[in-house]
């Protein structure tokens, strides 16, 4: 796919964070230890809240100038800090919100956070841009009527592979989970939930409510397959693929599309059995110090122009119809970003099914690894 | 070594109290108190998603004693012991070299050993991966040597060598041990250096003068004198290796799961803090038992 | 400190092991082992590619990016501040603990020794969660404090895990102390405190230095515990970097690490020089 545009999810961005921290004097030069106060210098906005916002996001998951533009438009400084995965986000919020106003959990964690009462309902009256979203994203199974979450991007798991080292297109989970054809060159994602669900999908079940009777079958399959697997990776599968350590790997479309741009020999496919769809969403955690700014920020991100700017930088699929309309064909026609309709039709969102299931799946993976 | 007889605290109450106050206060307020909470959790269970009810249950410990987890614990122990052994063998000569170096160069030599460790562990691990991977520097270098050799052999019409097969240096248990040694080495060298520095040189010189070889002197004089340093080095190397999770995660293969990986998952992905706490404290009980056993079998320093 | 004044050796004496080739080779091998990956890292900080894997030409762009990335600089400053403060505190507490355990016999001594080994024994993640709960539920650390007071929780956490490492190193050092020196000093009329400061502390110096290095290293490199104790305004370098490279290492991170190494080496070199060459020799 030579037309693949860059998907630099980890692209560096320049933000005026220190201004937001109010400590610009302190650290403008690497080593000058200034002692400017923080709290006393933050201005107040017209809504009575401090003109500041703590945004907890994935790395390079925002437009290049989005935060700067938001400050220009509203006077609110956005302080963005980063987390590496949902588990960290959840663990961090679990004991109490240390001061975040907007967070970006993935769909399943939207449910988890809601069940745990760690996020608050949104006030749709303050998010007029909601209408910009494509209809299929305006209400979803994991959050009917979007009471708690606003979709930011979506992504799918699939197979990344090195074209010259595999036969044809490996468009079935079989090649990862249940075959020795690529022995010693396979990389699986070290995520218990994903492995169990995709195995169920491969066996013809839904990714939701995987029957307990199927779990031993899945476990036996992975134990069998383990000797052909080179590595259980930690979401760095695209690097392993690019470096030639493995030739076929379970990864997210966006991550593989990133390395496709470095190496023409790499490709991504959603298997014919279908896959798990994920969606990263904007939420406001309980105890957010500045809920009004948070709503304004979420509404701002839903703006057509702003959304298009973000998509132009991060190149992830957008649920924002108005923004999509502004995007060039090179983005809209990209098969790694937007997998074929027939494959999407057989794909589903995962669901949070209670802690017991989480523990069960986790122990299954522990047993597979120890076998 | 001079006789080291401890004096009863009543002989110097003022100094005893002032030395005691800071550490004990800190220990109780900022270490034991937070850990006590987690220790409490190990006797509880998760209710819903975030609340933990401490009801005095031993279910978590019972679960942790499941053969599955014991076998993982045992394997981690083997990894940690191997790592510590290698660190000791590699680190001892280095510490000795630093100890007997010229005073001006000692600080710099120590810095030289510590410097790599001021780089983030994750970055260092990724850097190590770049060296070890299939098309990493070691394999590229070996491949170059092999191809040159095979070219030579071919031009001499001797034989045709098979094409170079890259070594599998990553994603296996070897890589995990290597990575752990890489991470833990300075934690071995520092205490060794600290204990050996200024050990009584006259003893060594006497031994050499009396005709004992360097090796004999090493094993009969230096090693016994450095014993406290070795013990301290083993402690600060062995136990953190047991608790390593990033190294096996990134360098290990499908069989390299260590106990800390399991513990980490309980606190994150599995969201089962009570079980994670029980596993952590089980690890702690085992370590304490090992330390107690070790001190029972080692003669007291004062009596030597 | 008569012990420190060794006669100068014009040529390698029998104990000058570093002058012997087997040991030289050994040290050199170890250094290569330690530095080969780092050298790669530094070289690739000049690589003109988003990835670390293939060399695509020389560039300084990533250094420019690091120098413009204010949040990264802020994390830098936070990390160095935390490391410096927690090292000083750890060395003081660790030295006091080591002296206490070495010098005195008292009830509950085994208990104290056991408690001290806890930070070494408990898995990091468990400590991290302990501090998370402690600093959000038991003693909520105010998040709105001005810099650097908002780093307090992180500094406390770092000291509490590193001071027992320092104590362990210093205690190993004290084991080689000759008590007769102390007795001699006291016989000559020196007070308890004078003896401590003039005789024992100088003897402890290599241990203090080694322990301080250890504490500094532990603090500067700590991710797990810091992650759980940091808030939106108190990001440290490892926490920042960890979230940036969980998926892959970029040259920007390499450049930042290279700079961090250069800065810490420079600071340490200055500190060593400031101590003066004489004091420096004495300290080691």
Itemize the secondary structure elements and their pairings.
The complex is a heterotrimer of chains A (371), B (304) and C (284).
Chain A: H1 17-21, H2 24-27, E1 52-57, H3 66-74, E2 77-82, H4 86-94, E3 102-103, H5 107-115, H6 135-138, E4 150-162, H7 174-177, E5 186-189, H8 192-202, H9 215-226, E6 229-233, H10 237-242, E7 248-252, H11 253-260, E8 266-269, E9 276-282, H12 291-301, H13 304-314, H14 321-325, H15 329-332, H16 341-345, E10 348-349, H17 355-370
Parallel strand pairs in A: 1-2, 1-3, 5-6, 5-7, 9-10
Antiparallel strand pairs in A: 4-7, 4-8, 4-9
Helix pairs in contact in A: 8-17, 9-17
Chain B: E1 7-8, H1 13-41, E2 44-47, E3 51-54, H2 59-64, H3 67-99, H4 103-114, H5 121-132, H6 137-155, H7 173-196, H8 201-209, H9 214-225, H10 227-242, H11 246-251, H12 259-267, H13 273-297
Antiparallel strand pairs in B: 2-3
Chain C: H1 21-44, H2 61-68, H3 70-103, E1 104-105, H4 109-121, H5 124-138, H6 152-174, H7 179-187, H8 192-221, H9 224-229, H10 237-245, H11 251-274, H12 277-283
Helix pairs in contact in C: 2-11, 3-6, 3-8, 3-10, 4-6, 6-8, 7-8
Rg measurement of chain A, Å: 21 Å
The total of beta strands of chain A comes to 10
Helix percent band of chain C? over 70%
CATH top level of chain C is Mainly Alpha
Summarize the main sheet of chain C.
Answer: none
Structural class of chain A: alpha/beta
- The total of helices of chain A stands at 17
Look at the structure and name the CATH superfamily of the largest domain in chain A: Periplasmic binding protein-like II
CATH class category of the largest domain in chain A = Alpha Beta
Q: Provide the residue-averaged pLDDT of chain C.
A: 80
CATH hierarchy: architecture of the largest domain in chain A: 3-Layer(aba) Sandwich
Q: Span from first to last CA of chain C?
A: 13 Å
Distance separating the two termini of chain A: 39 Å
Strand content of chain C: under 5%
Helix and strand sequence of chain C: HHHEHHHHHHHHH
Describe this structure in words.
The complex is a heterotrimer of chains A (about 375), B (about 300) and C (about 280). Chain A is built from 17 helices and 10 strands. By secondary structure, chain A is an alpha/beta fold. Chain A folds into 2 domains: about 180 residues, D-Maltodextrin-Binding Protein, domain 2 (3-Layer(aba) Sandwich), CATH 3.40.190.10; about 150 residues, Periplasmic binding protein-like II (D-Maltodextrin-Binding Protein, domain 2), CATH 3.40.190. In chain A, the strands form 2 sheets. In chain A, strands 4, 5, 6, 7, 8, 9 and 10 form a 7-stranded mixed beta sheet that branches. A 3-stranded parallel beta sheet of chain A has the order 2-1-3. In chain A, helix 9 runs parallel beside helix 17. Chain A is globular and about 65 Å long. Chain B is mainly α and about 300 residues long. Among the domains of chain B are: about 140 residues, MetI-like (MetI-like fold, Orthogonal Bundle); about 35 residues. In chain B, about 70% of the residues lie in helices and about 5% in strands. Chain B contains 13 helices and 3 strands; from the N terminus they run βαββαααααααααααα. Chain B has a two-stranded antiparallel sheet. In chain B, a hairpin with a 3-residue loop joins strand 2 and strand 3. Chain C has about 280 residues and is mostly helical. Chain C has a single domain, classed as MetI-like fold. In chain C, about 70% of the residues lie in helices and about 0% in strands. The longest helix of chain C has about 35 residues. Chain C is globular, with a radius of gyration of 22 Å. The N terminus and C terminus of chain C are likely disordered. The interface between A and B is medium-sized, with 35 and 29 residues. Strand 1 of chain B pairs parallel with strand 1 of chain C.
């Amino acid at each position: 796919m030579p037309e693949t545009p860059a998907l630099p999810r980890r692209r560096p961005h320049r933000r005026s964070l220190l201004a937001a921290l109010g400590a610009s004097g302190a650290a403008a030069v690497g080593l000058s230890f200034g002692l400017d106060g923080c709290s006393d210098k933050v201005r107040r906005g017209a809504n009575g809240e401090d003109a500041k916002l703590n945004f907890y996001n994935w790395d390079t998951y925002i437009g290049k100038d989005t935060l700067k533009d938001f400050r220009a438009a509203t006077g609110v400084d956005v302080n963005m800090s980063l987390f590496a995965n949902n588990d960290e986000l959840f663990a961090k919020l679990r004991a109490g919100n240390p001061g975040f106003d907007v967070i970006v959990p993935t769909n399943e964690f939207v449910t988890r956070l809601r069940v745990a009462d760690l996020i608050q309902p949104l006030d749709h009256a303050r998010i007029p841009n909601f209408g910009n979203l494509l209809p299929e994203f305006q209400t979803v199974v994991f959050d009917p009527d979007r009471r708690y979450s606003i979709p930011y991007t979506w992504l799918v798991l699939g197979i990344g592979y090195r074209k010259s080292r595999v036969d044809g297109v490996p468009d079935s989970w079989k090649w990862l989970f249940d075959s020795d054809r690529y022995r010693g060159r396979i990389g699986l994602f070290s995520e218990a939930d994903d492995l169990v669900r995709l195995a169920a999908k491969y066996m013809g079940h839904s990714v939701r409510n995987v029957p307990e009777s199927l779990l031993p079958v899945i476990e036996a399959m992975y134990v069998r397959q383990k000797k052909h697997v080179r590595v259980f990776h930690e979401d760095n599968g695209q690097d392993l693929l690019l470096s030639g350590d493995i030739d076929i790997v379970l990864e997210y479309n966006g991550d593989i599309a990133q390395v496709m741009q470095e190496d023409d020999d790499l490709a991504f496919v959603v298997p014919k059995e279908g896959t798990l769809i994920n969606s990263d969403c904007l939420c406001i955690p309980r105890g957010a110090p500045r809920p009004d700014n948070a709503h304004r920020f979420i509404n701002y991100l839903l703006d057509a122009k702003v959304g298009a700017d973000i998509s132009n930088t991060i190149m992830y699929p957008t649920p924002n119809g108005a923004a999509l309309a502004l995007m060039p064909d090179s983005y809209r026609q990209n098969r790694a970003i937007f997998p074929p309709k027939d494959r999407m039709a057989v794909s589903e969102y995962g669901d949070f099914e209670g802690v017991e299931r989480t523990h069960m799946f986790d122990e299954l993976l522990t047993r597979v690894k120890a076998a | 070594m001079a006789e080291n007889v401890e004096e009863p605290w009543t002989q110097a109450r003022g100094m005893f109290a002032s030395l005691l106050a800071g550490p004990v206060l800190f220990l109780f307020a900022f270490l034991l108190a937070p850990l006590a909470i987690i220790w409490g959790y190990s006797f509880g269970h998760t209710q819903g998603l975030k609340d933990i009810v401490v009801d005095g249950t031993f279910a978590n410990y019972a679960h942790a004693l499941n053969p599955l987890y014991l076998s993982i614990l045992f394997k981690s122990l083997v990894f940690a012991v191997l790592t510590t052994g290698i660190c000791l063998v590699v680190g001892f000569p280095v510490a000795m070299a630093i100890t007997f170096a010229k005073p001006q160069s000692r600080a710099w030599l120590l810095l030289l050993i510590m410097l790599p460790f001021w780089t983030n562990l994750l970055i260092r691990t990724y850097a190590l991966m770049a060296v070890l991977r299939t098309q990493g520097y070691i394999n590229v270098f070996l491949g170059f040597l092999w191809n040159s050799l095979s070219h030579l052999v071919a031009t001499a019409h001797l034989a045709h060598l098979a094409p170079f097969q890259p070594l599998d240096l990553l994603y296996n248990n070897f890589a995990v041990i290597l990575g752990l040694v890489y991470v833990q080495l300075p934690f071995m060298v520092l205490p060794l250096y600290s204990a050996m520095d200024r050990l009584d040189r006259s003893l060594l010189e006497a031994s050499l003068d009396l005709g004992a070889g360097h090796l004999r002197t090493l094993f009969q004089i230096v090693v016994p004198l450095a014993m406290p340093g070795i013990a301290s080095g083993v402690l600060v190397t062995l136990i953190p290796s047991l608790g390593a999770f990033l190294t096996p995660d990134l360098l290990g293969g499908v069989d390299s799961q260590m106990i800390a990986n399991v513990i980490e998952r309980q606190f994150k992905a599995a969201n089962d803090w009570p079980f994670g706490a029980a596993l952590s404290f089980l690890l702690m009980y085992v370590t304490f038992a090992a330390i107690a056993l070790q001190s029972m079998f080692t003669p007291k320093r004062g009596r030597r | 400190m008569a012990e420190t004044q060794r006669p100068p050796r014009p040529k390698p004496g029998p104990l000058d092991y570093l002058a012997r080739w087997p040991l030289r080779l050994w040290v050199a091998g170890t250094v290569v082992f330690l530095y080969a990956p780092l050298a790669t890292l530094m070289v690739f900080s000049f690589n003109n590619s988003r990835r670390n894997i293939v060399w695509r030409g020389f560039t300084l762009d990533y250094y420019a990016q690091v120098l413009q990335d204010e949040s990264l600089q802020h994390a830098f400053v936070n990390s160095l501040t935390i490391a410096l403060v927690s090292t000083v505190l750890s060395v003081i507490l660790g030295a006091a603990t080591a002296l206490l355990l070495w010098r005195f016999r008292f009830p509950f001594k085994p208990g104290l020794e056991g408690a001290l080994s806890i930070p070494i024994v408990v898995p990091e993640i468990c400590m991290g969660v302990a501090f998370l709960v402690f600093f959000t539920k038991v003693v909520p650390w105010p998040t709105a404090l001005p810099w650097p007071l908002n780093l307090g929780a992180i500094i406390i956490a770092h000291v509490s895990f590193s001071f027992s490492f320092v104590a362990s190193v210093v205690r190993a050092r004290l084991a080689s102390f000759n008590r007769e020196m102390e007795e001699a000093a006291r016989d000559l009329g020196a007070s308890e405190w004078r003896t401590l400061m003039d005789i024992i502390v100088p003897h402890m110096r290599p241990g203090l230095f080694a322990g301080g290095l250890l504490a500094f290293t532990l603090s500067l490199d700590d991710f797990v515990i810091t992650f759980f104790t940091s808030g939106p305004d108190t990001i440290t370098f490892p926490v920042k970097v960890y979230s940036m490279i969980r998926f892959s290492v970029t040259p920007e991170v390499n450049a930042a690490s290279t700079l961090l190494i250069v800065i810490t080496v420079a600071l340490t070199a200055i500190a060593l020089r400031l101590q003066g060459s004489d004091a420096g020799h004495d300290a080691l």
